[in-house]
Amino acid sequence: MIAAAGPGVDQRQLLISVGLDPDSENDPKQMLVDTVYYDLLENIAEMIDVTDLSVRTGASMRLDDYGALGLAWKAAPTLFGSYSRVERFARLWTSVVEYELKPVDHGTLFILHRSGVRRLGLRLSNEATLASAVSISRQVSPVPFSPKEVHLRHPPPKTLEYHEHYFGCPVFFGSDLDALLLSPDSLAQANKLGDEGITRFLDSHLEGELREVVDEASIESLAKDVIARSLSEGVPRVGDVARSLGLSVRSLHRRFAEDGLSFRTVTEETRKELAEGLLRDKRYSLSEIAFLTGFSEQSAFNRAFKRWIGRTPTQHRKFLSGL
Predict the structure, then answer these.
(1) pTM for the complete prediction?
(2) Sign of the CA dihedral running 289, 93, 180, 62
(3) Which terminus of the chain has a lower count of CB atoms within 10 Å, N or C?
(4) Which helix (H) or strand (E) covers residue 179, if one does?
């Protein structure tokens, strides 16, 4: 993002501002907290016009930037296989985004799930993520590639010219999801460097890495992370959480039982902890907090919070401020 911003920003200072050493070796495993990243993008927006920043960033991404996952994308026999690997192994390079392939009447949706308030930084990040998927699709496809449609949940920028030119298809802002609509022909297209033998080897490698990620932390903390990121779209189903963790539903229930937990209690505790944390930040209204914790109505959130804490959200916010 900083490189794509160009000479209109102080690139070294921007890196330093988020705790990155501009003179150090590139380390793809070094991560930023999502809110810090969004702050960075919003700082850039104060310096330059960011209308086309996300598509310029996406266009600059290369398969080598994604390590073993990039190799797996390249080696998959078809583009469908490439997207399937992102859906399966996204946990290896991000803890704040999940991907879903969903068949629909006119193709397959590649859906980006990211929770949080639709602030500018998050919106730019979502646009860049979908633009990156198109970029690496074009790198492996032997024929020109464009999605059939692009959908983004946030309002449109001042012009759609840059987005429609880059994606090569209609771009719908204010949609009910963040996604690419992919045609059956595109997904069935054989990749230029597809190799089933290499694919099997890389899949085995990535499965091992995914197991390590799941084993390194407690199942409770991992599940809470997935649940928290999903709540703005409603309370997730146990199958969705299990899939995000690379587990079967039976394995997830077993892991919970070993720790004396259940999916229901972990979900409730996640909502409670998230609500308590958001109430400490006065930038979030009570209606926003209700939405981010999976409630369709603020009244339902108020009742649940009083059941959890013994105070209403308004009373608790006053308590936190010492009033």
Answers:
(1) 0.69
(2) positive
(3) C
(4) strand 178-182
